[in-house]
Structures are given as C-alpha cells and as structure tokens.
Design brief:
Layout (H helix, E strand, L loop, with lengths): L9 E2 L10 H19 L5 E4 L3 E2 L8 H10 L4 E4 L4 E2 L2 E2 H13 L6 E4 L6 E2 H12 L4 E4 L10 E2 L2 H7 L7 H11 L6
Parallel strand pairs: 1-10, 2-7, 3-6, 4-9
Antiparallel strand pairs: 5-8
Length: 186
C-alpha cells in the first residue's frame, strides 16, 4: 500500500512511494519513523513489506479471510474489479522472510518486499477456493477507486540478499489453510 498505484508491472523496493489512502499513508509513516529513530539511536533495522497475507492465525480480516468466511457460510462474495490482482502471501512464507531478515546481516538497514512474488486475480482465489467448498455465489462490481491499483511485488532483493524462496503458490496455500480449518475438499 505504500507504493500507491503501481507504475510498473512489478513494484520493487525502489518503486516510487505514493500511498493513495490512509492505510498506506500510515504504513509509510511507520517506515519513516523507524528509519529516523533507528538512524538517530544507531539501531539496525529491516523493513518488511508483505502483501495480501493469508493463512492460519492471520486474524486481520483481509480480503482472503473475508472470501473464505463467506464461502464457508454460503454467502455471496462481492468482488470489486474483475481484473483486480494482489500478490497473495501465505503466512509461512512471510514468517520465513521475517526470520531471514532478522537473522541475516545482509538485511541491516534494508527494505524488502516479502511476498510470493506473483500477483493473482481475486477471481483466481475464489476459483481455487471453490474446489474445496463447492459453488460460490459471486457478484462482480466496479473496482473501488480509492484503493490503489496493485499487482506483483518484486522479491529479487530478498532472494539475493536473504536467500528468500517462497514455497506457497495460491493453490498450495489455500489448500493448507483449509486443512488447518479442517475443511476437506468438496
């Protein structure tokens, strides 16, 4: 969200920072405060930029959790934008990235995108989810204009400096998450 509307197909850590709404503005503010205080007090830091996190114990009511909850309750899912895409990140991949960033000296005073590194449409998420829960009632509306247009976050820097390798494409992550929830394939 700190990037605002993506200006390139892949937003790496050097992409212009131009948040479009309050959430992204506050995330960027946190980064600025972290850098400023850590530099002032000579404290090493690493900044991690995840995206669309989902999976067990992620309780933030993000889009993926809303979709899963509604699908399980057989409620209609509203999709704002038929082509809307996010770089979904399974919690295990994020945890791996955080561990690497906090234990590797190459991460000192660096910023990393820690995501899967490939965006997928919201409709892809629902299609995969339907393989486990059966038919899902969806309604597609116009995208929310206040949300930034996003896509893939580049993870080359994390791969190179941290040896970060995400292991959970959406198909594998949704399956593992639903197994955690004790949902068997439909």
């Amino acid at each position: 969200m700190v990037y605002g509307n993506f200006q390139k197909k892949i937003a790496d850590e050097d992409h212009p920072l131009n948040p479009k709404e309050i959430y992204g503005t506050m995330k960027l503010s946190g980064e600025i405060v972290t850098r400023g205080l850590c530099n002032f007090y000579s404290i090493p830091f690493s900044i991690i930029r995840p995206s669309a996190v989902y999976g067990p114990t992620d309780m933030n009511k993000r889009v993926s959790q809303i979709f899963i909850d509604k699908a399980l309750l057989k409620k209609k899912i509203i999709v704002n934008g038929k082509d809307e895409s996010l770089d979904f990140t399974y919690v295990d991949d994020l945890a791996q990235g955080i561990v690497l960033a906090t234990t590797n000296l190459n991460s000192t005073n660096e910023t990393f995108n820690i995501t899967f590194g490939k965006s997928r449409k919201l409709l892809d998420f629902i299609k995969i989810l339907s393989k486990f829960v059966g038919k899902i009632d969806i309604e597609i509306k116009e995208r929310d204009s206040f949300r930034p247009k996003r896509g893939t976050l580049g993870i080359k820097k994390a791969r190179k400096l941290l040896n970060y390798v995400p292991k959970f494409p959406l198909e594998k992550g949704i399956k593992k998450y639903l197994e955690f929830l004790k949902i068997k394939k439909h």
